[in-house]
Amino acid sequence: MILLAAGNPFITAYVQSDWFGKLIFWGLFLLSALSWTLLIHKAWIFIQVRKLSAQFSDLFSEKDPLNLQFTRPKGRLLEVPHPFFEMYKTLKQKTLQLISRNHLYLPNTETVLSEADLGLIDAQVQTALAGQHKLLEKNLFLLSTIATLGPFLGLLGTVWGILLTFSQLHSRGISASNAAMLSGLSMALATTVIGLVIAIPAFAGYNYLKNAAREYRRDMEDFSQLLIAAIELQYRRPDHAQKIPVAN
What is the pTM of this model? Predict the structure, then answer.
């Protein structure tokens, strides 16, 4: 409401600016809309991801690591990543594949995994972890770009407004109407302020989300270690057992 109030300096500066000045204003408005949309969306994503991860962690049992029955809900308007589930799905698929292969070589023994098998499973889980972390950081570069571009676009408006002011002084003289000169100065100051107002929350939000992604990666690494430890505890082959060929 304040921005739309009569006599607002930003509205006045926009109305009095020329076509290029209006173009700069619209560029700043679009950057602001994109910045806040991305900030709100990413913050919501991180909240949902942490909630889903906590629920999934509670469901997981170290005593029966391959028996967790869980299916991701379908049909959501905004699909939320579920890193814990994706890591578990990768672990379960690879473990069952190796167990099935091992039974071909040692059909009369208990279900076991070799050290090489465990290393292969761990590598697959780490690959899934890296992919999920990359998904969480998707489009975050836009915030850093906006934080850099906003002040530069505001500076462009500043320089253009001052240039218009000096142009009016040169063509009309100091005694000419002040309205034309003041409109240029008004645009110069308004675009500077708007550029900074855009950049500050974008920069702060980018740093916050990057830090949140780093912290959540540590949670993913802890959960991946829990998964591997549970599999090793339940299915690792004793050292004295017959050697099982490594999968290709």
Answer: 0.80
